Each structure stands twice: as C-alpha cells, then as structure tokens.
Amino acid sequence: MKKIISFLIRKVPRRYLQVLSPPVMKFLAWWFRGNKYTCPIDGRSYRKLLPYGRIEARANALAPGSLSLERHRLIWLYLQRKTNFFNTKMHFLHIAPEQCFMKKFEEMHGEGYITADIESPLAKVKMDIHHIPFPDNHFDALMCNHVLEHVESDFQALKELHRVLKPGGWAILQVPFFFPLTETTLEDKTIVDPLEREKQYGQSDHVRRYGKDYADRIRSVGFKVTEDDFVKSLEESEIRKFALPAEEIIFIAVK
Fold first, then answer.
1. Cα-Cα-Cα-Cα dihedral of 79, 81, 84, 89, to 10°?
2. CATH number assigned to the domain comprising residue 169
3. Mapping DSSP to helix (H, G, I), strand (E, B) and coil, where does residue 98 land?
4. Which pLDDT score, from 0 to 100, does residue 5 have?
C-alpha cells in the first residue's frame, strides 16, 4: 500500500488525483472504520489511517473520509481554538484549496469563501499567485499552504498576499521543511532538471528549500509573523487520537 500511494503521488498530476480519488476514498473510509483514530474535520473514526508520502510513506497519515493529512488536522484545530474563523463570516481566500477543508469552509463563509488555483479543477478562480485578481485590502483572512516552494518568485507572491489582505487581516502560510534545516533558504534558478530538483529541494516540482529564514522572508514584505508551536499545547492523547504532526510550526502572518 505504501509503495502504491507513493508511486501515485509522484507520477499522477495533482489535478487528476483531486478528481479521481474521492470515490476510492469513500470505500476505504468504510473499510478502515474503527475507533483508534479520529479526523476532527468530519468526525469519522478509523482503526487505522492510510500511509502517505512521496519517497517514504508515513504510516497513519491520510484520513480517507476527509482526505486530510496530519498538517490539515492540526490547522483545523488551530482555527477552532485560536481564531474567530468559525464564529464570524469572512471574506476568505483559500489558495491551492485542500479538499478536506472546502465543504466546511463553504458552509461557514458562503460567497465570501473564494478558492483559487492556477490549475486545480476544484477552485472557483483560476489565478496566478504572482498577480492576484482582487483589489487591495479585500480579504479578512487567507490560507496558502505548500505553495510558495513551487512559485517562481515567493517574494512577489508574498507581496500580493499582503496587498489583498485588509489591515489587521491574517494569513496561514505553511511550507514543507526538510531537516536538518539550513540557515538560509536554498534556491538556484539554473537547476531545472526534475531529478536534481528532487535531490536538492525534496520534490521535483519545488524550486526552493526553505531554511531557518522562512519567517524573515514573510516579514520582508511587511507582515508581522508569529511562529506558533500550537501542537505543543495539546495533550498527548489528542495528538495520538487525531494523528497530528509532532513538530509542525504554524506560521501566522498579520498585516
């Protein structure tokens, strides 16, 4: 199972997986039902979760009912417990929208919830993050997870994210990290070979590998940044039950 999932993730474009995987996952959600793990997003429980990962699949990572990974379940709990996201109607921009969130976010924020992506068939708006087609000071909040490592200029993308947020607006801006972390972000535009990019940056479609300076890169466009180790505040029983990441830092940027 681990090898099959790793192969599919590596070889099948994300836009096709987004369309084809839900029917299969519905069956697996029934097959793996149990009471050891629970996804806080949809409330379903399982005897085990699916493995997930490109190179070496992590055990008990993917909840088949919601399609959530460890980081998604952590973000859901963060939004519930540390923000007003589920208490106040917002204009909310969701870039490269994760399927596990979309239905619930739509129910909460209605027409104010905007999904955007350069290629995903699930998004409402086709958009290049370097040139966001919305006016200044438009959104109350936004989320942009595991995107900035793919784009030509993360600084231009961050400037656009800052521009479209209202003063006081906040953003969750997650990227993958590969340990041990380097002091500064690694990027070399002359590296175009997919295999070399995978070797240097962890994935063939990544163009940089973020280091300890990631928060400073966000600050450079005008954001105030909090590096929240929210997972450390949770009980061990919750971390096990929800299958959460042990070390994930949530990067909160405020305009």
1. 60
2. 3.40.50.150
3. coil
4. 58
* Model pLDDT, residue 14: 64
Q: How far apart are CA 67 and CA 100, in angstroms?
A: 5
Mean pLDDT, 10 residues at a time, the chain of 255 residues: 58 65 82 96 97 85 96 98 97 97 98 96 95 98 98 98 98 96 96 94 95 98 98 98 96 98
Q: Which long-range contacts (CB under 8 A, 24 or more apart) does 124-133 make?
A: 127/95, 129/95, 129/157, 129/160, 129/161, 130/156, 130/157, 130/160, 131/160, 132/93, 132/160, 132/161, 132/163, 132/164
Residues 88, 208: one domain? yes
Q: Which residue has the tokens 């087609």?
A: 133
User: Domain containing 90: what range?
Assistant: 81-254
Q: What is the pLDDT, as a whole number, of residue 40?
A: 98
The single-letter code of the amino acid at 150 is H
- Which token pair is 141? 């909040």
Residue 102 resides in a domain: yes
Whether residue 223 is found in the same domain as residue 151: yes
Would 238 be classed as within a structural domain? yes
| 156 in the same domain as 229 | yes
pTM for this model (two decimals): 0.91
Rounded distance, CA 177 to CA 203, Å?
Answer: 11
Structure tokens belonging to residue 19? 């369309």
| 76 within a domain of the structure (yes/no) | no
Q: CA geometry: angle at 179 spanning 149 and 204, to 5°?
A: 40
